[in-house]
């Protein structure tokens, strides 16, 4: 694997933050170490507001399920019927603020052009809308690598996919 430091920039997918927050037994430590590498400028990390939206939504759903003893499948419906409960989901609000404040993590916006490009990418490359939008943002920013634990970017021409484990091990962490 080629080393990401010092010249390349990599896009961090939503699952990197989620595996860290939810302390996934197999991958959580590697994600935490990867985030630490970003903080210490060993890896140039970029993510988007769309990723943060995805992360926040999933955190809210999991926290709602746990806090109100509701099956995951019903958590969104529960929140829509009980908006006032959102205020009590402190872990999710704290975690998203923590992610936003990660030193050296660039958080980029989504433009209307990104969305237009993502429609074509999604259709032509068989990508779901969020993944196509991530790819459109990467193309706009000139980013050719992504760190993810999901295989949905496999076989994307011009994109190098890394797992958190590969990055952390390549840095001799």
* Rounded radius of gyration (Å): 17 Å
The helix tally amounts to 8
Which whole number gives the mean pLDDT? 90
* Percent range for β-strand residues: 5-15%
Number of strands: 5
Task: Offer a concise description of the structure.
By secondary structure, the chain is of the alpha/beta class. About 55% of the residues lie in helices and about 10% in strands. It has a domain at about 10-55 and about 105-170: 5'-nuclease (Rossmann fold, 3-Layer(aba) Sandwich).
Tell me about this structure.
The structure is a single chain. With 173 residues, the protein is α/β, with parallel strands linked by helices. The protein has a domain at 9-53 and 104-170: Rossmann fold (3-Layer(aba) Sandwich). Helix content is 54%, strand content 11%. The chain has helices spanning 14-21, 28-39, 49-67, 72-81, 90-100, 112-125, 129-141, 164-170, and strands spanning 9-12, 44-48, 105-108, 145-147, 160-162. The chain has a 5-stranded parallel beta sheet with strand order 3-2-1-4-5, sandwiched between helices. Helix 6 (112-125) crosses helix 7 (129-141). The longest helix is centred in the middle third of the chain and has 19 residues, at 49-67. The model has no long low-confidence stretch (mean pLDDT 90).
Key terms for this structure?
173 residues, Rossmann fold, 5-stranded parallel sheet, 5 strands
How would you summarize the topology of this molecule?
Layout: E1 9-12, H1 14-21, H2 28-39, E2 44-48, H3 49-67, H4 72-81, H5 90-100, E3 105-108, H6 112-125, H7 129-141, E4 145-147, E5 160-162, H8 164-170
Parallel strand pairs: 1-2, 1-4, 2-3, 4-5
Helix pairs in contact: 1-2, 1-3, 2-8, 3-4, 3-5, 6-7
């Amino acid at each position: 694997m080629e080393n990401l430091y010092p010249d390349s920039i990599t896009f961090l997918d939503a699952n990197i933050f989620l595996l860290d927050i939810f302390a996934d037994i197999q991958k959580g430590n590697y994600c935490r170490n990867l985030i630490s590498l970003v903080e210490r400028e060993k890896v140039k990390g970029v993510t988007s507001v769309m990723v943060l939206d995805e992360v926040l939504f999933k955190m809210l759903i999991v926290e709602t399920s746990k806090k109100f003893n509701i099956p995951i499948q019903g958590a969104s419906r529960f929140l829509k019927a009980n908006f006032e409960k959102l205020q009590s989901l402190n872990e999710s609000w704290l975690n998203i603020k923590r992610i936003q404040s990660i030193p050296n993590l660039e958080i980029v916006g989504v433009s209307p052009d990104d969305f237009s490009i993502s429609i074509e990418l999604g259709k032509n490359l068989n990508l779901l809308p969020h993944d196509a939008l991530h790819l459109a943002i990467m193309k706009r920013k000139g980013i050719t690598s992504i760190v993810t634990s999901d295989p949905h970017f496999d076989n994307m021409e011009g994109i190098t996919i890394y797992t958190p484990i590969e990055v952390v091990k390549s840095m001799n962490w």
